Amino acid sequence: MGKEIWCRWLRKVSLQFFRYLLALDTLQDGNEFVSHHFARGPTSLNDFSEAMLCDFTSGVSVVSVANLVNRGFVPPPIRESPLDPLLEKY
Amino acid sequence: MVSDPHPSGFPSNTPPLGHNIVPGSIPKGTLLYHGSMSRGLPPGPEWVATDPEHSYFYCREWEWESRPGPFQHGCWLLTLATTRPLKVIYFDGSSAVKLPYGSMDIQDLIAWGGLGRHDINDDDRRIQDLCKWGKKFGVDGFVR
After folding, report:
1. pTM for the full predicted model
2. Who among A48, A60, A66 is closest to B12 (CB)?
3. Which of A58, B72, B126, B138 has its CA 20 to 30 A from that of A52?
């Protein structure tokens, strides 16, 4: 029992310290933070997921163009987020 | 920036109202995805997603048919690759979410110099004005 409590405490302290180090590193180098996230590959709701580019004639090239309708893709209907009713409360 | 590296795995959802403006870069060779009803490259500022699933949604036919540029009906998915590191500004929190509770405050502060007097759905004007602001600093885009 005593060992379990000790392990739990150690884990908590380690996590807090890890968070502190990450925050410190990020404050010192935001560029590294953003680049790291992109380097990690496809993102999800957990991270940022969109970028706004100002000029598509510079800095990007087209890899492929696919017509999704021709491939049987049907755009999903617009629907309310399941979170909307919850957000209305605030 | 303190709230972002959250070990829970939900950094931007846990604190949705971001307050940080972070300079960053998108590395060369990064794949970006753009869903559109047009097969051509956008003629002006536009959005790209970092995962294809996100961009599918935007291939639908919006009420944007009056937009300039090549137009063809369809649901087009453009896969793009960066050819050089892109200089970007990152807005933390759930800064792409259209909520009237402050999730877009930092962007609006930069784009329009104030808060609360603008339509949260006016993303067209937001992106135009953000790019206009960023031009003098050599900013290629914004991440949110």
Report:
1. 0.67
2. A48
3. B72
